[in-house]
Design brief:
Layout lengths: L1 H32 L3 H23 L1 E6 L7 E5 L4 H10 L3 E6 L8 H8 L2 E3 L4 H12 L8 E4 L17 H9 L3 E6 L15 E7 L9 H22 L12
Parallel strand pairs: 1-7, 2-5, 2-6, 3-4, 3-5
Antiparallel strand pairs: 6-7
Helix pairs in contact: 1-2, 2-3, 5-6, 6-7
Amino acid sequence: MIGVAVQWIRSLLFCTQMYLALALVAVAFAPWAAFDRRGARMAAMVYCRWVRWTADWMVGLKSEIRGDVPSGEVLVASKHQSFFDVIILVSVLKQPKFIYKSVLKYVPFVGLYARWLGCISVNRGRRGEAIRNMVAAVTASDVVRGQLVIYPQGTRVKPGAHAPFKVGIAVLYTATAQTCVPVATNVGVFWPRLTVLRKPGLAVIEFLPPIVPGLDKNAFLKQLEDVVETQSNRLMAEAGFDVERPETGP
């Protein structure tokens, strides 16, 4: 019990400084970021690498990148388990931009930098209309170039839970005719939702072999879900998580 209490206190200190650092970095880079997208990207990278570094020595949570980090115009279809997988992706992608839910536009600093980075917000209320608007934004002539990150399940999914992959990623794959890079992760084992506690261990983001354009939507979606879920399960098992007996709770 003492060990858990100490880890909880360390986690609280880590989370506190993490959000203070968000404000400090956002304000410090704002004069550059507001007029030059390179400034926004530098701010995002500096902040995310800071979080990874402080997570290591403050709570014992190391992080590792596996596979080939993509560059150029690609779709990045990632498993999403916690804020930490966002942090790791932004720390290594050269030109990251995200598909994100529109409510995040109102989060202090996050919404502003999302716009400066060229991220694309979607309103999930009406699925058909949301998908049409998303495709129009992604394929517009003035769209920001880079690696477009989308979470195919549409939300964070705790380790061991199942959520189907949504059709939006398949529509984008077809509409853009771009290569899709699947991403597996185990970060949710160490960085749970809705709690301050951060657990020590090795959080992994793994870029998997790319899926080239040309598949039909159903075949693509099946292949994507199979590889991401299979490899994410392997990474979670490597971290000591029993996928067959997932944790209960939120």
